[in-house]
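Protein in question passed on here:
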Amino acid sequence: MSTPARPARPARRPLPLGAEVRRQLGRRRTRLILGFLLLLPLLLVGAFALGGDDEPGAAPSFVDLAQVGAANLTVFTLFASTGFLLVVVVALFWGDAVPAEASWASLRYLLVAPVPRGRLLTVKLAVAALSTAVALVLLPAWTLLVGLVAYGGAPYQGLAGETIAWPDLWPRLGVAVAYLFVNLLFVGALAFFVGTLTDAPLGAVGTAVVVTIVSSILDTIDALGDLRDALPTHFQFAWADVLAAEVDGSAMATGATWSVGWAVLLLGASYVVFARKDVLT
């Protein structure tokens, strides 16, 4: 009596997303980045504790208000991180995605395995974006917890004396974090694109950081006029508009449009370049 044939098991897709996520979490670079983000609010609280008091009668500064409560500490931390720290974090996540495989001599193996080039880039891109989202959520969430312990749960207080109660503040912080993610897409896409051109992770990361710094310098030149709108850093602090008494989202809409446009262009170029790249490593 013949044994009935077993149904064929569906073939596993090469380079599953879950495996790549686990690989990302196991990397020392990822642990160091997340560890530093957890350390940052603790450093700020320590620095504030060591600082001296202001002169009597002086108007409170942005730094002074950071010690009012957890909400203010969170906003201060996001503001202090936007211009450089988050740029470096995003550049590391995205710029190291493809060149790291080459530096580990595994890129050629992945492509021969075979993993289609388009799928390899898509999985790397998805993991980089997910890592960025986790970092952007982790920083304010942890800062809120640290601020609650250090300064209490007072409502957010602005420089003009306006306050935002917690029920109204939660969605505003969510919008701010979401905008930061969209605005940083340019940095990530540029680092990712350069990563398809080089086998040196530091080259991809460094290029994205340097271009962002140059953009910030050009943004200070008033003579450029409306041309500055196209600079990826011109609207990087537009998320602060959600903390105004009357929210105006026009700057965030313009900044998000430019950032997404640049990201689509650079990521599209990444797929074109990598599809034609001669992988020798």
Observations:
- Residues 17-38+59-276 form one domain.
- Confidence is low (pLDDT under 50) at residues 5-12.
